[in-house]
TrEMBL record:
It is found in: Cell inner membrane. This is Protein PsiE. Keywords: Cell membrane, Membrane, Transmembrane, Transmembrane helix. It holds the Pfam family PsiE. The lineage of its organism: Bacteria, Bacillati, Bacillota, Bacilli, Bacillales. Belongs to the PsiE family. The chain crosses the membrane at residues 21-38, 58-78, 90-107, 113-132. It is a multi-pass membrane protein. The keyword Nucleus does not apply. InterPro entries: P_starv_induced_PsiE, P_starv_induced_PsiE-like.
Length: 146
């Protein structure tokens, strides 16, 4: 006997449609970010081969911008590989890289640089705590094994 799938109710259809819209949007965003990543590589080439005097701060800021694009693309790939879930550690990587870039680009005010450094320290401490914390709690294993 062949079972026929029942017609989907609105409650079942809405999340699927929204998930599909989200997935298509993320694919489109990944294409845009990939284009920007290639543009950054072209800018690197121009800076290295055309400039007689290289502005090291600008070059380093562009490298960090390149890594921001790279990390966002990696996060989108991980989203699809991990069953529609963004790993928290990638947000921390992006935050740390963005703050380092901000320090390099905007280091004129010492107090702001100190605040940016404190933000980086907080993000690193959060990453350290996240890695120390087991994914499965011992209490949950004990509870379900009864």
């Amino acid at each position: 006997m062949v079972r026929h799938r029942k017609d989907m109710t609105l409650v079942q259809l809405v999340p699927r449609v929204l998930q599909m819209v989200l997935n298509l949007s993320l694919v489109f965003l990944a294409i845009i970010l990939s284009t920007l990543l290639v543009q950054e590589l072209i800018i690197f080439g121009k800076m290295l081969f055309e400039a007689k005097s290289l502005d090291h701060q600008l070059f380093l800021a562009n490298i960090l911008l390149f890594f921001l694009y790279f990390e966002f693309i990696t996060m989108i790939v991980k989203y699809f590989k991990e069953d529609y879930h963004f790993p928290l550690r990638y947000f921390l990587y992006i935050g740390i890289t963005a703050m380092i870039r901000l320090i390099i680009v905007d280091h004129d005010h010492p107090l702001n640089t100190l605040f940016y450094s404190l933000v980086i320290l907080i993000l690193i401490i959060g990453y350290f705590i996240m890695n120390l914390t087991p994914r499965e709690r011992p209490e949950s294993r004990w509870f379900f094994n009864k």
